[in-house]
Amino acid sequence: MDKSPPNLTWRKSTLSGTNNDNCIEVADLPRGGQAVRDSKDPNGPMLNFTPGAWEAFITSVKTNEFA
To answer: Coil, helix or strand for 42?
Structure first.
């Protein structure tokens, strides 16, 4: 886990609504891939995903692999 580099544009799912509980935010990394952080702790640690790891994660979510 890393600290957030400056100038990332973070976004949260529109399904999160106005409730800030149990939300994550995602940002595109300058050299590719994605960063993920807890929306309740924006100055806390973040996870970095390579483009391939992020695509595998999204595919697994869409196919209910984690259910």
So the answer is: coil
Distance in angstroms between the alpha carbons of the first and the last residue of the chain: 25
Per-residue pLDDT in tens (0 to 9) along the chain, 67 residues = 555 566 899 998 777 666 656 788 999 999 899 999 988 888 889 999 999 999 999 999 899 998 8
Distance CA 25, CA 35 (A): 8
pTM for this structure? 0.76
Give the sheet arrangement for strand 24-28, strand by strand. 2-3, 45-49, 34-38, 24-28, 11-12
Count of other CB atoms within 10 angstroms of residue 49: 18
